Each structure stands twice: as structure tokens, then as C-alpha cells.
Amino acid sequence: MPLSLSANEMAMIERAAAPLDRDRQDAFVTAVLAALEGCPELGLGVVHRAIRATQRQYWGPPPTLVRGTANHHAKSKLASGPPILASARR
């Protein structure tokens, strides 16, 4: 039985695919549609859950968010100084 998705449901899937790398977007949409094929009832909540479960397999953090890579944030002045309230400890 072919899937019958509403325009809103299909738009949800396409919006969820947008942040992915272009070469992974089609595979993501195909995987979401495959996950939805076994569902007896469709709705926005079911589509959302299928998207969420599938995104975990296809999304990877950008290189700037991976630990150990270059960071554009300034270093904290507190990190190089003594612990706060160090003088109060005895």
C-alpha cells in the first residue's frame, strides 16, 4: 500500500532533511518514508517520531562542534586564574 502523506507531513520531512549534507538528504528522506510504511496510522506525531529516530543515524555535528577542533570562542580569564574563593579556604 503506497504512503499517503499530507503536504504538512511531507514538508516536515523536507525541513528535517535541510540541515543535513546534500549528499545525505535523499537517503534520509527515503529512510523516513521506509520507517513510515509499516505504521497503521499516520499523523504529525508519528511522522515527527520517525524523523527523530532517523535523524540520529544521518546527522553528524559540524566540525566546529567536535571536541578537540578549533574553537572560535575566547579563552576564559577565570580558567587561568586561581579558584574562586581560594583565599577563603583553610
Blueprint (SSEs and pairs):
Layout: H1 7-17, H2 22-37, H3 44-58, H4 77-80
Mean pLDDT: 80
Q: In what range is the share of β-strand residues? A: under 5%
One letter per element, helices H and strands E, the order comes to HHHH
How large is the count of helical segments?
A: 4
Number of strands: 0
What's the short version?
By secondary structure, this protein is an all-alpha fold.
Can you walk through the features of this model?
- The structure is a single chain.
- The protein has helices spanning 7-17, 22-37, 44-58, 77-80.
- It is mostly helical and 90 residues long.
- It has a domain at 1-61.
- The longest helix is centred in the N-terminal third of the chain and has 16 residues, at 22-37.
List keywords for this structure.
90 residues, mainly alpha, 4 helices, elongated
